[in-house]
Amino acid sequence: MQNDVTNDGDERDNTVLDKGPGTDLETQIAQQGGASHPEDQERPGAAPPGALSPLVYDRVSVGMDVYGAEGDRLGAVGERALDWFRIDTEVGVGGVMFLPYRYVEDVVRERVILNAPAGLLYDMHLTEPPAAEAA
Questions:
Q1: Which of 26, 40, 73, 92 could pair covalently with 35 via S-S, beta carbons 3.0-4.6 A apart?
Q2: Taking CA 57 as the corner, what is the angle to CA 51 and CA 58, rounded to the nearest 5 degrees?
Q3: Tell me: the pLDDT tens digits for 40-66?
Q4: Phi and psi at residue 59, in whole multiples of 5°?
Q5: What is the DSSP letter of 9?
Q6: What residues are paired with 1 via a beta bridge?
Q7: Four-residue CA torsion sign, 122, 71, 60, 48
Q8: Which one-letter DSSP state was computed for residue 121?
Q9: Which CATH architecture has domain 54-123?
Q10: Domain boundaries, the chain
Q11: For residues 16, 18, 19 and 20, what is the CA-based torsion angle, rounded to 10 degrees?
Q12: Lowest mean per-residue pLDDT among 24-28, 32-36, 86-90
């Protein structure tokens, strides 16, 4: 295995995986301790899929702009509840959307970034607060 140190001191594995006869790339990755699929890996600093960081509620504030996963702006946070928040949208029936916090990917620079595209969320017709989720 060959390691290089980048300018910022980060060590990276530059091993070239050989896909020779009788070998498969996923097996080689697994033998090196890596996950065979990106979704099998935990992202550094990210909560496991489906888990909600207790800090998400504290980080989402009324007035913050809300963006879908692809970067389209949905609107602004209009109200917060314990399990959901309301987005005052610029389009759509009623001009509001209610989302559980599990749809929040990150909160960065006064922006709420969602983990689903805006179009999908509009298609879901989330015009009522969600029912309380079972713990």
A1: 40
A2: 130
A3: 444 444 444 445 556 788 899 999 999
A4: -90, -20
A5: S
A6: none
A7: positive
A8: H
A9: Roll (2.30)
A10: 3-40, 54-123
A11: 170
A12: 32-36
Indicate the residue type of 56.
Answer: V
Q: Which of 97, 115, 119 shows the shortest CA–CA distance to 106?
A: 115
Residue 53: name the closest of 117, 102, 123, 3 by CA: 102
Q: Ramachandran region of residue 39, left (φ > 0), alpha (ψ -120 to 50) or beta? A: alpha
In angstroms, the first-to-last Cα distance of the chain is: 45
Whole-prediction pTM value?
0.58
Structure tokens, 37: 């699929």
Rounded-to-5 percentages of helix, strand, coil across the chain: 20, 25, 50
User: 62: which residues sit within 8 A by CB, 6+ positions away?
Assistant: 77, 78, 79, 80
Question: How far is residue 60's CA from residue 79's CA, in Å, rounded to a whole number?
Answer: 10
Helix (H), strand (E) at residue 103: none
Is-contact 75 28, C-beta < 8 A? no
Average pLDDT, integer, range 121-132: 87
